[in-house]
Amino acid sequence: MAIQIIIAGANGRMGRAIQNIALAEQETYCLAGLVDKGDAGAAPCAVSGDMAQTLTTAPAGAVIIDFTAPCASLENAHTAAKSGHALVIGTTGFTAEQKEELSALARHTPIFWSSNMSVGVNVLVKILPDLVRALGEMYDIEIVELHHNHKKDSPSGTALTLGECLAQARDWKLDEARCSSRDGIIGERPKTQIGVQSVRGGDVVGVHTVYFLGQGERIEICHQAHSRENFARGALRAAVWMHGRKAGKLYGMQDMLQGG
Q: Which family does it belong to (predicted)?
């Protein structure tokens, strides 16, 4: 049976990518609603600018996929918590307080959040800490992320997720170790530091490079997203995995990949 999908941010880049896959693979996915402002074109399902209104007629087992903005995603999470619908969020730019709010709502309805829906990126999150520990503390760590000129948050959520796993491997807190701006006479680079730098331009979907810089050598690990389809498929895979899932925790890609 096809999984019923409701897309929040349906007119956005990711919303359109998810729609295209769902429409092409109707044996697996069924669009039960599109939520966004503006004209959705010749939509094959109900279209509304209001999530609460959409959920009044949506099947109980429908899963919401949300790629919007932090405040809009939180509002949708509150609405989903009232209706009991499962929610998959790919929005980035949440503050620490907003993430705590999402975690609290996840105790009432199944919620999945990931800063990056790519399987490849999340495999990196799993294996990078082992590389940090194997190399030791003599290697400086830097991250550079490159995205299109429409991206609103910086650094990217993916860069911060990579930074968090790297910092944890050294028993550091990323908020204390992160340096995202260097200008002027700044002195020598502190050892307890992870640089996270952002580049914006053109139509680049997303490139993240982690540098391990030692004496006489460096290691570069780079993930390049060639299209948004990769993220859209990850979000749809998460929606299938979340269908029928119980509330109780804020789920993520590591839970899905490990079958937790």
A: Belongs to the DapB family.
Active site residues: 147, 151
Question: For the whole model, what pTM was predicted?
Answer: 0.84
Just give the CATH number of 119-225: 3.30.360.10
Q: Which two tokens stand for residue 7?
A: 């897309």
Tens of pLDDT along 207-239? 999 999 999 999 999 999 999 999 999 999 999
Residue 148 among known ligand-binding residues: yes
Comparing CA positions, the residue from 118, 114, 172 lying closest to residue 141 is 172
Cα–Cα distance measured from residue 5 to residue 242, given in angstroms and rounded to the nearest whole number: 11
161 is in an annotated binding site: no
- Tens of pLDDT, residue by residue over 12-49, are 999 999 999 999 999 999 999 999 987 656 677 878 89
Structure-block tokens of residue 76? 């949708």
Query: Is residue 117 a known part of a binding site?
Result: yes
CATH architecture of 3-117+228-258: 3-Layer(aba) Sandwich (3.40)
Rounded Cα distance, 140 and 191, in Å: 7
CA atoms of 220 and 213, how far apart (whole Å): 9
Asked whether residue 13 is marked as a ligand-binding residue, the answer is: yes
- Tokens for 134? 């194997």
Residue spans of the domains in the chain: they are 3-117+228-258, 119-225
